[in-house]
């Protein structure tokens, strides 16, 4: 069996005897929306549990459209009909990139993401979670998260969330409340919310009862978010369905459709080869490491996980990430990440990679760029710059007759 593995903007290939391959896990095929503009306009006219967007805009002067950054598919096709409605109602629309803790986008990335026409006609802001001057505080959630948010949401008459719905290991699903937390939140608020990732109920594909999602939902409920417009993303980032309307109810409807695409039945193997889905989902190791989550579920005891992530932008992580990878054992990482005083997103990233090592005595091999391989040289993650090197190492560890499972688009899969 010859299998192609997505790696940045190209693919790697591997031939494995058929009797060793237990299968390929990946999302279900979908029917792509052909007329996206028409679907968006229809959703704006007949939203879920909300008045039409045109009615919401009547009599208003300004609108803030919060949308996703370059680590997600371009929202351009969703934005255009919304901006047209704003112009029709004489509402001045600004766009803010809800970066969360991600870096700001470059001008070149903004052009590719939004288009020159949008950039030329509308004010485009980028959230900075460390800019104290742009933050306001509106109390705390029940879990103690300070509701500190970019004050732009209070400087406009209408706030609209726009983006992509996909399963998320952070909040169960992307979208909705996530455009505010972590999208427009203060860095310390994000850290406090994300600490709940250490709770076993924080699972991909789970909304209610997921403490990260519940906390983000409470955070968002205290802030202006009047309307959402989201596309359910298919396996190749094609738009499958458009939902608009009430930030909670429309979001739930979109998640139901997404669940049908990405829930897969669990399989197990001695060697699991996993990819986040290529560019932009392996732009850095913060994104690419998400491929380990379903792989950790599938790998057998004493097995091997191979993650393929090009990481052209490097690690994309806080210093704590490498500090924990180099300075602690996997067991120490899994222990210390549960200490709120020690927790950070970097620590969390180290924990994701440590868990299969601690829980299953598995080895984790990363196929990546030479630069990232050098940065991770003294860590508990084995690195390789060629897929053939990783494959040989996996066979030495697990045996030449070890079973093999491929996982495609791993960052979105719900394994159960």
Question: What is the structure about, briefly put?
Answer:
The chain has 416 residues and is an alpha/beta fold. It has helices at 36-45, 53-57, 76-88, 107-114, 116-121, 187-194, 211-221, 249-262, 285-288, 292-298, 319-327, 330-336, 345-360, 370-375, 387-398, and strands spanning 2-7, 10-15, 21-25, 62-67, 92-97, 123-126, 135-140, 146-150, 158-165, 167-168, 172-173, 227-233, 239-245, 263-264, 269-275, 299-308, 363-367, 382-384, 404-407, 414-415.
Task: Describe the 3D structure.
The chain has helices at 36-45, 53-57, 76-88, 107-114, 116-121, 187-194, 211-221, 249-262, 285-288, 292-298, 319-327, 330-336, 345-360, 370-375, 387-398; strands spanning 2-7, 10-15, 21-25, 62-67, 92-97, 123-126, 135-140, 146-150, 158-165, 167-168, 172-173, 227-233, 239-245, 263-264, 269-275, 299-308, 363-367, 382-384, 404-407, 414-415. It is globular, with a radius of gyration of 21 Å. It has a 6-stranded parallel β-sheet, with helices on both faces. A 6-stranded mixed β-sheet has the order 6-5-4-9-12-13, with helices on both faces. It folds into 2 domains: 2-26 and 265-415, LarA, C-terminal domain (2-enoyl-CoA Hydratase, Chain A, domain 1, Alpha-Beta Complex); 36-261, 3-Layer(aba) Sandwich (Rossmann fold), CATH 3.40.50. By secondary structure, it is an alpha/beta fold. It is 33% helix and 25% strand.
């Amino acid at each position: 069996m010859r299998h192609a593995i997505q790696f940045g903007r190209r693919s790697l290939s591997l031939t494995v005897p058929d009797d060793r391959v237990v299968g390929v896990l990946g999302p279900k095929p979908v029917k792509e929306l052909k007329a996206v503009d028409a679907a968006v306009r229809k959703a704006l006219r007949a939203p879920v549990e909300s008045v039409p967007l045109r009615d919401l805009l009547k009599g208003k002067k300004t609108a803030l459209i919060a949308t996703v950054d370059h680590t997600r598919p371009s929202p351009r096709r969703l934005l255009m009909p919304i901006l047209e409605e704003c112009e029709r109602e004489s509402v001045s629309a600004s766009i803010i990139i809800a970066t969360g803790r991600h870096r700001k986008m470059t001008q070149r990335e903004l052009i590719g993401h939004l288009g020159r026409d949008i950039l030329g006609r509308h004010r485009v802001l980028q959230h900075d979670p460390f800019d104290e001057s742009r933050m306001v505080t509106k109390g705390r959630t029940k879990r103690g998260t300070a509701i500190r948010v970019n004050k732009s949401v209070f400087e406009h008459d209408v706030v609209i969330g726009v983006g992509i719905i996909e399963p998320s290991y952070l909040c169960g699903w992307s979208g909705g409340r996530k455009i505010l937390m972590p999208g427009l939140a203060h860095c310390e608020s994000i850290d406090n919310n994300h600490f709940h990732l250490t709770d076993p109920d924080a699972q991909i594909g789970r909304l209610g009862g997921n403490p990260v999602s519940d906390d983000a939902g409470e955070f968002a409920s205290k802030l202006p978010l009047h309307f959402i417009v989201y596309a359910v993303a298919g396996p190749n980032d094609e738009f499958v369905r458009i939902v608009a309307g009430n930030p909670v109810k429309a979001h739930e409807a979109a998640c139901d459709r997404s669940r049908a695409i990405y829930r897969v039945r669990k399989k197990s193997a001695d060697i699991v080869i996993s990819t986040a889905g290529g560019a932009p989902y392996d732009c850095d190791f913060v994104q690419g490491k998400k491929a380990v989550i379903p792989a950790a579920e599938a790998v057998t005891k004493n097995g091997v996980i191979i993650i393929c992530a090009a990481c052209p932008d490097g690690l994309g992580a806080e210093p704590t990430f490498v500090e924990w990878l180099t300075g602690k054992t996997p067991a120490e990482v899994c222990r210390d990440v549960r200490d709120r005083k020690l927790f950070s997103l970097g620590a969390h990233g180290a924990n994701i990679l440590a868990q299969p090592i601690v829980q299953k005595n598995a080895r984790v091999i990363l196929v990546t760029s030479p630069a990232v391989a050098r940065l991770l040289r003294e860590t508990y993650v084995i690195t390789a710059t060629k897929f053939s090197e990783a494959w040989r190492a996996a066979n030495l560890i697990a045996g030449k007759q070890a079973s093999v499972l491929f996982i495609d688009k791993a960052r979105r899969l719900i394994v159960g």
